[in-house]
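forwarding from the other thread:

> can someone predict this with adenosine-5'-triphosphate?

sure thing
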Amino acid sequence: MPNSLIKANSMQKKYSRIFKMVCAAALLISFVLPLFAGDYYMRLISLIFIYIILAVGYNISAGFSGITSFAFAAHYGVGAYVSAVAITRYNMPFLVGLLAGALASGLVGLVVSLPASKVKHHYLALISIGLLEIVQQILNEWQWFTGGSGGMYIPSWDIFSISLNNFQKYYVIFIIMLFCVVLQRNLMKSRWGRDLIAIKNNEIAAAGVGINYSKYRIAGYFLSSILAGLAGSVYASFSGYLSPDTFNFEFTVFILLMAVVGGEGTLSGPIIGAVFVTFIPMLFNAAPDLKQIVFGALLVILPQVMPAGIAGTIKKYFKEIDNNNYIVEKTEGNEFDIERNVIKNNSEIEDILVVKGLTKRFGGVTAVDGLDMTIKRGTVHSLIGPNGAGKSTTVNMITGIDKPSEGSITFNGKEITGDKFFNLTKKGLSRTYQHVRLFNNLSVVENVAIGGRLFYSYSIIDSIFRTRKMKKEERKSFHEAMEYLKIINLNDKANYDPESLSAGQQKLLELARALYMKPDLLVLDEPCAGLSETETMEFAKIIHKIRNAGISILMIEHHMDLVMEISDYITVIDYGKKIAEGDPASVNTNPVVKTAYLGEGA
Ligand SMILES: Nc1ncnc2c1ncn2[C@@H]1O[C@H](COP(=O)(O)OP(=O)(O)OP(=O)(O)O)[C@@H](O)[C@H]1O
């Protein structure tokens, strides 16, 4: 059967048309503006371009990756001063100076984010305030390097010994800005961008698809600080004079305001934010003291009345999300063959998972107490017990979310006790969650595609330049993700926002994501909670299919009919201890289970 493109709905099409027209108009105006505008306006628009570069940097950090930092004024300052020193004191060419400034800011970002990644990530916000203070002091006091409070003059720009006039400077800044905007767009529409967005959405689920979120946070912040440093470097040569006062907390407020007005985590937000926030102060030329009050008030009010900013609000109105609908293909015809699409594990080991003496204590509470359990390859093994029995804690230890207090876990013959969650996914373990953990800033199909991220190898450079390799792998990945969506009958909702799905559909979507990871052992934590009776029966059929394809399943479930119907083996726990195990028939008639779990007399 032929493939047909999934059609965006009419509102999304309208948005896409309007968006393209606005972009084309903005590009055209920016391009021809110097032919008509005087020097003043050319400098003003150049400054907006610089702010766009800075706002793009901040957006990659806070908007997409969820890393809050108040040090972007400091990164901007480091970039500006390092490039100025490189050009004026060491006679480096302008372009080398730009790179030096950007890199220096990136290095500072690295130094700051490395320790911050080891503690809870919101500590980076605190560390960033410290950095801003340090940079302020250095700029003011380190006379021979920065010129101190007296400032520093930078000679006019030379590129290949040609001194640039304002007209030429405008186009150089315009090209650098365009590069940064396109870089942001390309990065975010690739697996690297999706990984960053996933971390912001849900750290645990991100680790569940194999993302080492500490490393990604560091990388995201490194890139953001490079862009902020680049903006500062361009500003230094553009303005011709640097003063430490420019890079203070007031400027941090200005950067935050650009993000809040434009809309964090959107591709056009930095552009909209930079334009608005550059023009707002002009309204207060007559009363400059009022400017800070207005900026502060806007920071207080806007997140409450327009939390998504201008770009986010417009997108919400058109129900648009930044997705990859241009490469999503809907396959019709043959039913998806799970067996064909799973990686067969060649291991001969029959006991796929062996748990011995597993114990977890939370302070005085022993949630799991010396549990022994063995899961045979190719079976559906259910773990049941009353509320609070320790089931979720058990699977959290098996999947590396909780560290066991005692005991051992062996998977495919290798000990995995205490392994990190993101490492276990690479070893063939995937899971769903008691409370659904989807990535709500990604579309339905992207939520599945991210499950297959380990099978694709294109680099971040491939992403930025959208190489053939990147496009080929993305197309394959989305095509496969669509196949997985077929299993759960959601292929016609590929471009939807996951929040628009019913609770049952969201559970199924999580299952499709876990399946695309091609696991050896699939762990399902209460997969049917919130599903209707019909959906539960559909789910049972899917589980049968998955098991027949050779994937072993460990399932926690309260729906007893389902457990009895689809399980090959059942382990029953109560107060963290195993009280029974066996096939469904024996467990169903076990008097201890009846007493403890089913509430009947033995
Ligand atoms: N992070 C935690 N800190 C402290 N106590 C915890 C923590 N997680 C679980 N517990 C406790 O451990 C015990 C087992 O909880 P767990 O969630 O594993 O049970 P469960 O069998 O999955 O329950 P349910 O069926 O209601 O989901 C409970 O008493 C719970 O309160």
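Residues 43-248 form one domain. thats all i got for now
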